[in-house]
Amino acid sequence: MLDFTREEEELEKTKTAYSQLTISDEQSNHAILEGIKRANGMKAKRKRLLPVKILLSASILMLVFISSVKISDTVAAYAMNIPGLEKVVELIRNDKGLLAAMENDHIQKVNLSDEHEGFKVTIDSVIHDESNLIVFFKYSSKDEKFGLKEIYLMDQDGKSLPFKINKGSYSDKGALSEVRFSLAEDNVLPDKLIISFEMGLNSGKVFEDKWNIPITLDKEKLASKQVYTLNQKIEVEDQKLTVKKVVSYPTHTAIHVEYDPKNSKKIFGIEGLRLEDGKGESWNSNKVDDTWISENERIIYLESHYFSAPKKLYLRFDSIRALEKDELWVEIDPKTNQILKAPKDELLKKVERGSNRLAIQLEANRDFMDHQIILYASDSAGNKIDHKGYVGATLDGHSIWYTVPFPTNENISGPIKLELLDYPAEIRQDIKIKIK
Amino acid sequence: MDVEKLIKKAKKGDDASFYELMQLHKERLLRIAISYLRNEGEALEALQEVTVRAYCSIKKVKHATYFSTWLIRIMINYCHDQSRKRKRNADSSVIDQLVETVDYNRSLEIEEALQRIDSRCREVIILKYYHDLKIKDIAEILESPESTIKTWLYKGLQALRDQLDERGGLHA
């Protein structure tokens, strides 16, 4: 056996870097208490959701929490009776557009598997249209230590395709999971493709072998999109926006919205956006992230009304999130950490500096956690302070701490500026526009 | 109160006992998080997340003796998930790009050498030398036999020596 005394001594020397913690007791106790609070909340939520089983597991890559339960009971009850699709119904019962796509036979049963290393992956079925490829799959193994790492799309020759996952809800082993690939308009999805799964051990090791399942998409199941070109202008307290078009696909509806660059306020988002048929039926957000086309243009996704073919259709929303453009920059004195300039509503409370970071406290409830209000700090001239570090949001009671990288030792003359990229300021106004 | 009693009470749903258990382990968990994530803010988030995961599955802990290694395993799994997330999202959003450029003093030669060796070996070395864990506990945490851990440790130290030699380090 070789003697590693010198390597061990070197390791001993660097060990101190990890033994000096500058995290305060208060901060760490707070993290633990928040963890307990969140766990309690989740337990309650999980009970409500049964038997829809989207649970935590250490090997999950992404988590999708279902925050509201709206089940189209009649559709779900009907679809439950389609043999072999009960599990899919369980998974998508909160999305009535997808349920309708299934009910109208736009789901393709696949039932193909790949198995090695004692680990088996099965693709149960797929739903695809011009905008999405949704894959329902499950995996099982004798060994608890196995887990799913990544999923890719390849053409039939094994060349990887550029489509990205924009939603995934991964269940425990044995239960059905869903992964959704967003199909960009300029790339064509071939009919013959391979869905490739990367597996590994929970301790981190990834297997070189891939679990590959070739499938051929059934063209018969493809239904063409319906485009409603509107270019409808809307004003909410002098702020202008245009609903350019509504595109309806079997898997979702895409709303193209453009904000007027001349608005006095910057619009961050639209709250409660939905489609209604005027008879009490509505199609809401499907919890897929917006696509940003440019600074003032985005695509927002809703559940699909494709198969409901309502006679009348209205687009509605309750409010917009917007802030005066001259309030978009927050100013801070780096010497005293005082807030010199901030939005008039005074929701920004306090600034704290830590090692290589700056944090600002916003009074907001936990639902706002999904929105990152700042990404970087700038110097007095507005130049981005380029520093390595992390960006994040931490919940603290009825407020959220947003953190950006900031050098501890460098002398930066004030004031420091922070650009607000989102903010919980709402302008409420009921908007209803006719689509057809 | 001893750990065994605390675990018993925590399993029955006593939050104060669970809090106490986390108190006993938080320092070690934070240090481990920092050695993986190299950032204090993220380490705090990791502690919060590990608290959630541990709270939800504490009923799975069968013996008090395994509680510590079980917690560390949850932390390590979380850290692995995080680094995979960083990689996957590296080109997809601004936030993640920024997260990718984590800051930490990595100028020390031995640290650089560590980054170059096999990840399993590195993990064993970090757990043993930086976190003072016994081979038996590391085996427990990484769910591998002790003999395998010893092999990784030996291979890791060997690789570390080769790295340092190559770079004109310790044995020049």
From TrEMBL, chain A:
Key words, A-Z: Membrane, Transmembrane, Transmembrane helix
Membrane-crossing residue ranges in chain numbering: 50-69
Any Pfam family hit: DUF5643
Boundaries of every DUF4179 domain copy: 49-140
Family matches, as InterPro entries: DUF4179, DUF5643
Residue ranges of every copy of the DUF5643 domain listed in the record: 226-334
Domain of life: Bacteria
Protein name: DUF4179 domain-containing protein
TrEMBL record, chain B:
Keywords: Sigma factor, Transcription, Transcription regulation
SUPFAM superfamilies referenced in this protein's UniProt entry, alphabetically: Sigma2 domain of RNA polymerase sigma factors (SSF88946), Sigma3 and sigma4 domains of RNA polymerase sigma factors (SSF88659)
Domain RNA polymerase sigma-70 region per the UniProt entry, residue ranges: 21-88
Keyword Transcription: yes
Claim: Transcription is one of the keywords in the record: yes
Family in the record: Belongs to the sigma-70 factor family. ECF subfamily.
Protein name: RNA polymerase sigma-70 factor (ECF subfamily)
Biological classification of the source: Bacteria, Bacillati, Bacillota, Bacilli, Bacillales
